[in-house]
Design brief:
five-stranded antiparallel β-sheet; globular; 24% helix; Rossmann fold; alpha/beta; 277 residues; 9 helices; five-stranded parallel β-sheet
């Protein structure tokens, strides 16, 4: 079995609790609208209840809340949840925010849909997947959503800057699905991808958005290499256009928790390669 990548540690994940990361998280490109239609189409059980694991500021949960019966948005970062509560949809009556690790946070099952947006790779897979099986309704889908920025013409330069300034020096590319299948937690059935969506963003915001990543946190504890990318960039004025998609792989959970006595299907939405999220 391939070991879990060395950089996927609790210490690196904890940087999403840094206030500097929280303050810039809104600069990440939003999920394509098509993602939400896909998620809602996957709900077949009643009531239409959702668990959003690793919710962050609730990018998925806040948009789903008005279209489902109830949604629990769970994150270990109290700062992320506090910010999410102030954003549009953050006070919806169907939405319950829960501060705590998804591995043992207090939940109120059953859930007809489980989502995890750009977060599963930081979790303890051997604990999380059996727990998902314990809290799901009979026909639940588990959906892990990963937005993928389309490579712009300047990608090579961005990559060099990230390699220079990243505080995670042992980063290695990895295939999340491959790791899950090796551990007999998931078996892929099919794959799909949303249509590309283009957004316009100021160059200053585009550069600042990289500091919403665990590898480029500006907080002092992140280390001496956490230099500001702005100091390495020139002419930050103007705007740019760049696009993103969400890649989708659907499959089945292969190992169930003790409460799961029947077959349950899952759908996994991920990028084939997770890049410094």
């Amino acid at each position: 079995m391939t070991p879990k990548p060395a950089h996927l540690t609790a210490a690196n994940a904890s940087r999403f609790q840094d206030q500097s990361v929280v303050d810039l998280y809104h600069l990440r490109l939003p999920y394509p609208p098509e993602v939400f239609d896909i998620l809602l189409d996957l709900i077949t059980d009643e009531p239409r209840t959702v668990l959003d694991a690793g919710t962050g500021t609730g990018e998925l949960a806040r948009q789903l809340a008005e279209r489902v019966d109830a949604i629990d948005a769970v994150d270990v970062s109290a700062a992320m949840i506090a910010r999410g509560q102030t954003l549009p949809g953050g006070d919806h009556p169907h939405l319950r925010w829960i501060v705590g690790p998804i591995e043992d946070a207090p939940l109120r099952p059953p859930y007809a849909l489980i989502t995890a947006g750009d977060s599963l790779h930081w979790m303890d897979w051997d604990v999380v997947f059996p727990r998902f099986a314990e809290v799901c309704s009979p026909h639940v889908f588990v959906t892990l959503v990963h937005r993928t920025e389309l490579a712009p013409p300047w990608q090579d330069g961005v990559t060099r800057l990230i390699q220079q300034y990243s505080t995670i020096r042992d980063y290695e590319p990895f295939d999340l699905i491959e790791h899950l299948e090796q551990r007999r937690l998931f078996q892929t059935v099919g794959r799909r991808e949303t249509a590309p969506v283009t957004s316009r963003q100021s160059i200053a915001d585009y550069i600042a958005s990289f500091h919403s990543r665990s590898s480029l946190s500006r907080d002092p504890h992140a280390g001496r290499r956490c230099g500001r990318l702005q100091s390495a960039a020139t002419d930050p004025g103007g705007t740019l256009e760049h696009g993103r998609t969400a890649r989708i792989a659907d499959g089945r959970q292969r190992r169930m928790g003790p409460a799961a006595g029947r077959s349950r299907r899952s759908l996994l939405t991920v990028a084939l390669t997770c890049v410094l999220s």
